[in-house]
Amino acid sequence: MAALPRIRGDWFRWRKKGPAVAARLFCMQYEYFVGKYGLHNLLRMGNCQLVEGYPGDDVVDILPRDSYAEKGTRTDYQKEYAQLRALAQVKKPVDLAEIGIQYNFCGTVG
Predict the structure, then answer these.
(1) DSSP secondary structure string for all residues of the chain
(2) What is the DSSP code (8-state) at residue 43?
(3) Within 10 A of 83 (CB to CB), how many other CB atoms are there?
(4) Where would I find the H helices in the chain?
(5) pLDDT(32) > 60
(6) Can you tell me the distance from the alpha carbon of 47 to that of 52, in angstroms, rounded to the nearest whole number?
(7) How far apart are CA 90 and CA 9, in angstroms?
(8) DSSP 3-state assignment of 88?
(9) When comparing pLDDT for 22 and 103, which is higher?
């Protein structure tokens, strides 16, 4: 369950009131699927790199991250990997889910 993608972006309605509210909404969504539909085989992906938006080790199974480099830069994503590792207090699988070069909304690089 990759709930609430782009939880860092304040352009999405679930992030408008802050990362802590988005984290609570993440938990509510999980409780809904389990409580209403009886789903118990969900892997929960908490896609937030902000400590205050991290729902918690007890409700996140995989730590994904979206990361886009600026045009003309190179990276091996070690910094992003280390930030993901530091977020959880226990070992979790991490996933550099979306990576690439940053594009603007017109579809051109930069």
Answers:
(1) ---SS-TT-TTSGGGTT-HHHHHHHHHHHHHHHHHHH----PPPB----SGGG---TTT-SBEEEEEEEPTT----SHHHHHHHHHH-SS---EEEEEEEE-B-TTSSB-
(2) P
(3) 15
(4) 19-37, 78-87
(5) yes
(6) 12
(7) 26
(8) coil
(9) 22
pLDDT in tens, 93-107: 888 887 877 766 555
**Long-range pairs, 16-23, Cβ under 8 A, ≥24:** 18/52, 18/53, 19/48, 19/50, 19/52, 19/53, 20/52, 20/53, 22/48, 22/53, 23/48, 23/52, 23/53, 23/54, 23/55, 23/56
Tokens of 109: 């690089």
* Residue indicated by tokens 């977020």: 87
